[in-house]
UniProtKB/TrEMBL annotation:
The keyword Transport does not apply. Keywords: Lipoprotein, Signal. InterPro entries: SusD-like_2, TPR-like_helical_dom_sf. The lineage of its organism: Bacteria, Pseudomonadati, Bacteroidota, Chitinophagia, Chitinophagales. This is SusD/RagB family nutrient-binding outer membrane lipoprotein.
Length: 483
């Protein structure tokens, strides 16, 4: 698949240059057949930016609606088909191209041409695994054994999701095995996520493995159990793995850039599915994730956070509706949305993953303590640490129950809350894996006979150009690990 999407590469270069100056990134020698420092150091941020772009923009918006964090505004129209569960195959063309021709091609080039820059290659292996997981979790079977081989052929075969996951674990292990925190050639600011802190990449790789093994625990229980047990004593993330964006033109949060491209039209509004659950727990994070609006009740103006039921965009309400906040990147009228970070994995997710592994008996530790740490990390990420203790003590959803399944439900429900507006693809994916939270409602205009979408449609570009692409799969058919 040929490399495209120059805009993403330019974005990465601009962000990287902010910290190091352009001269280091443009210092290329004259030998066209030898990889250079500039080659690898430019490709790494380009690839990271490509993964981040799709995670926040196309996948983030789509999953934010199907994960019932947001719904289509009654005053606009951009995502009506998404709310109806009628996402067109052509809408997947651009993110597919960005990930394959941009991100994955660049990660592979870093690995192939690393030379002495083995730490960049280590990061590329881990993020190659991360990006393949994004793709397979979105679509199911995807290209693998015939992908990223070079050449101009568009006819690339697809492999099973089980085979993709086997490769994901191999790539993570390769990346982890290459990490040398004291390597003098390790990346600096061209690593947009950790700035070249290789100890954090070790934690990221371990946490990604934990996520991936838990993902397949139903379909491959013995493999998941053995893989997680092998992680005992390994360090996991205790800080967010994220890319920070700015308000400078071209460097905006990718979801906000989509909104800018639509003339700042506020298509996304709060879904009452998420809002009602937050409200039932008097969760102070509501005002971090959504805008506060004023509505009149019994003649009194009251500041509230209000959503509408999923798919009710044909009904014009007689009250004000909340929007995604600037902190999520989803508020078109607020330029602060531009600087919302994109989280690849968060500290709260890391603690919740560990808690679930302990509950299932595959790691040792105190699951309740890890559950509490996950909540506290979510509050801290939005400057609400002072309010966490009261929430943990009083909110029904924050109480630690008895019994394995009840504990898993509590963990995943809190993970769903923590991922509001910032890890929507993962929140929707975890719902597909576990069925939690259990308060989703079918869209009022959904066309899956009361069922929910379980996957993205394969891109139209594959059907029209790749002779080996599979037939379309109905959107309500679960992927392999959720069957």
């Amino acid at each position: 698949m040929k490399k495209v999407n120059l805009k993403i590469a330019i974005l990465a270069l601009t962000i990287a240059a902010l910290g190091t100056g352009c001269s280091k990134f443009l210092d290329v020698n004259d030998n066209p057949n030898q990889p250079t420092e500039a080659d690898v150091r430019l490709l790494l941020p380009s690839a990271q930016a490509a993964t981040s772009h799709v995670l926040s923009n196309q996948y983030g918006i789509q999953a934010g609606i199907w994960g019932q964090y947001w719904t289509q505004s009654p005053f606009s129209s951009q995502y009506k088909s998404t709310d109806r569960y009628l996402t067109s195959a052509s809408s997947m063309d651009r993110p597919w191209s960005i990930l394959w021709s941009g991100g994955l091609q660049d990660y592979q080039s870093v690995i192939t041409n690393a030379g002495q820059y083995t730490q960049q290659a280590a990061i590329a292996y881990i993020l190659k695994a991360y990006t393949f997981q994004m793709l397979t979790d979105a679509f199911g079977d995807i290209p693998l054994s015939e992908a990223l081989k070079g050449g101009d052929s568009l006819n690339v075969g697809y492999d099973s999701q089980a085979a993709v996951y086997d490769s994901i674990f191999v790539w993570i292990d390769k990346g982890l095995g290459m990490i040398e925190p004291t390597n003098p050639y390790k990346p600096t600011s061209e690593d947009l996520i950790f700035g070249g802190d290789m100890e954090q990449w070790t934690r990221f790789g371990n946490t990604l493995k934990l996520r991936a093994y838990l993902r397949v625990f139903k379909a491959a229980t013995s493999k998941a159990q053995a893989g997680i047990q092998a992680l005992q004593g390994k360090p996991f993330l205790e800080k967010d793995a994220r890319i920070n964006y700015t308000t400078n033109g071209g460097n905006e949060n990718p979801m906000f850039s989509e909104i800018l491209g639509l003339g700042r039209t506020q298509n996304l509004v709060a879904s009452s599915t998420a809002i009602d659950a937050f409200t039932a727990n008097l969760d102070p994070r509501r005002s971090a994730f959504y805008t506060v609006v004023t509505n009149t009740y019994n003649g009194v103006d009251i500041d509230t956070i209000v959503g509408i039921p999923q798919g009710t965009y044909d009904d014009i309400p007689d009250f004000s509706i909340s929007f995604p906040s600037a902190a999520t990147g989803g508020l078109g009228a607020d330029n602060n949305s531009a600087s919302a970070p994109v989280r690849f994995m968060s500290a709260s997710e890391s603690y919740f993953l560990q808690a679930e592994a302990v509950v299932r008996g595959w790691l040792t530790g105190n699951a309740q303590d890890l559950f509490v740490k996950g909540i506290e990390a979510s509050f801290a990420a939005y400057g609400l640490s002072a309010e966490a203790a009261n929430y943990i003590a009083t909110a029904p959803a924050a109480q630690w129950p008895a019994g394995t399944e009840a504990q898993v439900k509590a963990i995943i429900t809190q993970k769903y809350f923590a991922m509001t507006g910032n890890q929507t693809f993962e929140g929707w994916t975890e719902w597909r894996r576990t069925g939690y939270p259990d308060f989703f409602v079918p869209s009022a205009v959904g066309e899956l006979a009361g069922k929910f979408p379980q996957r993205f449609p394969y891109p139209n570009s594959e059907a029209t150009t790749n002779a080996k692409s599979p037939d379309m799969v109905d959107l309500d058919v679960p992927v392999w690990w959720a069957e």
